Structure formats: structure tokens, C-alpha cells
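Please go through this protein, sequence plus C-alpha cells, and consider how the sequence yields the C-alpha cells. Keep your notes short.
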Amino acid sequence: MKLVNSRTVTVLSACAVLALVGSGAAASGLITSAQIKNGTIRQVDIAPGGVSGHALTGQSEIEAGSVGLRDLSKFTRDHLKTTYVGPNWSIIDRNVIGAADAYLRSGPTAYDSSGTVERPPSGVGSLGIRTADGTSKTEFGDQVDFAGESLSSISHIGYWVYTTNENNAIGPDNMPSIDIEINPNNGSATYSSLVYAPANSAGDAWSRIDAAADTTPDWGLTGSAFSTNPCSINSTRCTWSQIQSLLPNATIYTVGISKGRDYAFSGAVDDLWINNTTYNFEPFGVFQTTS
């Protein structure tokens, strides 16, 4: 994955060219970024050993410490501390219905009503969520890494959501959901979706939502086994602590972000956190950071 910005590529390339000075391949004087045409340096030109195999052998060829972490973009520095976990995060196709999609994207970055620039909480991207109408549904999640884990092991869970005033005008609870597919281990029930569906957050803005600390009962269980019981998605929902008290032996199948079938929506989610791990959605993958 490309983790350097265009200026960093220019600086590194200029340093690599300076390495040829000692061999007579360059004239006297310094080569600066102003002398390199934009777009002419490619990643293939920057190899671990230098340019075309010519090693950068020491301070006589390039000043030691001239390119460091501070010369890299903040996005690059942040991702040097993360682990790419993208392979197991994807569209959960069996949970997609109609005209709906979830996709890794850049932004959204925009001015809000007060003139403040709204940006994703981490990096430059997010998970875009779009449904066309009340019959559509989409889901993006991980069907592998959480399988078999105890639901009771999760003490902290939440995410950042970007929504709009247009979304809010359509319905009172028009928000992306956290969807945890579980084995309730409760009587004969072996499957249910545990869904967190909060009230609308501020429009045209990024909002941090703590789903475990939310004292409003916004967690609900799907399936006939819970249709007349506490915490049903279609009746009286519960808080996170009430869900855990109801299902102390539940285990996880998948964890995802879903939307539908309720209202049309266009917005985004970023930085889903579970306990001390954050899943940062970026245009080219999902990155995991543990604090």
C-alpha cells in the first residue's frame, strides 16, 4: 500500500539521486525538489538499497537524519503504527438487499453549518453507507476474527457516524447500526442479530457514539425467540448492560456495520472500537490500532 505523500516521494528521490554524486553521476551542487518534475518519480524508483541497486552507503553520500518521521505525512506516521487487517473485512453479501451498498471511501470532509471543517476522526477515509429506500439493506463486517468470542468479553463498544440533515429529515432513527450476529445460548435459540440502532446524531457532522455507555435502550435482538421477551428489536429494547445480563453465555458469529431496512440514507462510519481496539476504515483497507 502507498503510504507516502507526493512531497515525501520527491524528498526521498532527491536524496537517492544525491547518492550518485560520489560516483560522478551528478554535477556539483544540490538537487532539490524544485528540480524534479512532478509525477516523474515512481515507487519502483525507490528501492530499499537505493536507486537501481545503488546502495546509500553513509553520511558522505546523504546527510544522516535528513529524512525522518517528521518529514512524512501525519497519515503515513499514523499507519506506521497500525496493522492492516483488511482481508477479513468486507461486504457481508447475505445481508445485502436491494439498492444498498457499503464501501471504503475517502472523506467525507466538508464544512458544517458553523464553518468548521468536518473530517474523519482518523486518517483520510471512512466506510460509506448508502441505502436507496426502506426496502434496501447493506452490511460490512468481519465474519472470521470474532467468531466464538464471548459477548460478555465486550465492555466497550462504539463508533463515529457522519450523517446529514437530509437523513435526519427522513426519520427519527435513521442511522447506521452496529450489528453483532450471535449464538444467544438461551434455550433453543441458536441465532440472533444484536443490533444497536441509536437516535439521529447531528446533521452534516461527525459524531462519536458510545454504544456501551448509552443509557437509552437502543440495543435489540432479532428472531422469534425474543419477539415477546425483553430486548426485542421490535418492542422494548435494552441497554448494553441489560443485554449482557440477559445473555451471559452468548457467543459471537460476526461483527459488522449495517443499515436498513427502514429509510433511505447516505453517510459514513469510522473508527469502530471494541474494548481497546479501534478499526479505522480507509480507502484501501481497514486498519487495526490497539491502545
The first helix runs from residue 6 to 18. Residues 1-28, 46-66 have pLDDT under 50 and may be disordered.
